[in-house]
Specification:
Length: about 230
């Protein structure tokens, strides 16, 4: 698969997704025509001569549309590789886990002790969902993670409250049990390549870590920690 094909998918992924959705409409039209015994109608649909511009376009280009749609897997894998490369070149700890889940965290002697406290700022993604338009999260998510097994009750509530203002400034307004503040990063622009986009994602992780970690360091009392 060429880089040109991946760039084609990046530029047209949303339009391709709209074309793919036409498959169900076409199948329903053919099914209705068969039930009605309308052979001529079914033939016109299958020949791309139905008279509906969208339906006719899909039928005439069905194979190409399916081929273009299949580029998502390759493009997503390419973005996954670029995110790993950008993270590791920037000194992050990147971990590939089960079912395609991958995460990256800033590694710094000053703040690595937070890992022992089960507190981390991370970038996370599922590689098979990257750049998808129909399932999962198409772009990496950035989160502040508090392990609920380690952090609960008043201590957990205190950390969530203390980090809330910064999270809001960074647009990390979504919440769940593990990721107490998180957001999906913005979409890749038409002017960006996968490498520059991945590097921008890692830069956002570094910026968020620099905002969160000093606050966490001051809020978490650990014997012997500076």
């Amino acid at each position: 698969m060429t880089a040109e094909a991946v760039q084609f998918y990046l530029r047209h992924r949303l339009q391709i997704s709209e074309w793919v959705k036409l498959e169900k409409r076409v199948d329903d039209l053919i099914g209705d025509a068969v039930k009605e015994g309308a052979v001529d109608k079914a033939t016109r649909i299958l020949n791309g001569e139905f008279g509906d511009a969208d339906v006719d376009f899909y039928v005439r280009n069905r194979s190409l549309i399916r081929e273009w749609d299949s580029l998502q897997a390759v493009a997503g894998q390419s973005l996954h590789a670029e995110l790993l490369r950008a993270g590791r070149e920037a000194g992050c700890r990147a971990t590939e886990e089960k079912r395609g889940w991958t995460s990256a965290r800033v590694s710094s002697p000053e703040f690595d002790w937070l890992v022992e406290q089960k507190v981390e700022v991370e970038l996370g993604w599922t590689k098979q969902d990257l750049l998808s338009t129909r399932h999962g999260f198409p772009f990496p998510r950035m989160a502040l993670q508090l392990n609920p097994l380690q952090w609960n009750g008043e201590n957990r509530a205190r950390l969530i409250e203390a980090t809330g203002p910064v999270a809001d400034e960074l647009g990390m307004t979504r919440k769940d049990n593990w990721w107490v503040h998180w957001r999906m990063l913005g979409a890749i622009s038409e002017s960006q390549g996968l490498r520059s986009y991945a590097e921008a994602c890692v830069a956002k992780l570094h910026a968020a870590s620099e905002r969160f970690y000093p606050m966490l360091r001051d809020a978490i009392v650990v014997p012997g920690a500076n």
